[in-house]
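Researcher: I'm preparing a figure for a lab meeting and need a structural model of a single chain. I don't have an experimental structure, so a prediction will have to do for now. The sequence is pasted below. Please return the structure as tokens so I can convert it later.
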Amino acid sequence: MGVYTEWLTDSIGILRIGSKFCEFGDSYDLACTVIKKGEDTLEIKGASTSFFTNIVVERDNLRSILKPIGILWVTWNRIKDGIIKEVKVKI
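Model: Understood. Here is the structure written out token by token.
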């Protein structure tokens, strides 16, 4: 498995995770937009996957690419039964 972030600007990127993913261009299982919020938070938007557990499995790889750029927190919105809940997790 692998993790890669393609930064489109200084604060907006595309995060890809995949069971056969090693480098940019490989197939992936999960893709989402990521936005740096402030100095230490990354917001996940529009995650698309049939294997959400990949984020959990790739937690150490995520930490290894996010901590060097100062990211300590990851946040996203979860919608269930029409109720929006913001989730914030320390990496």
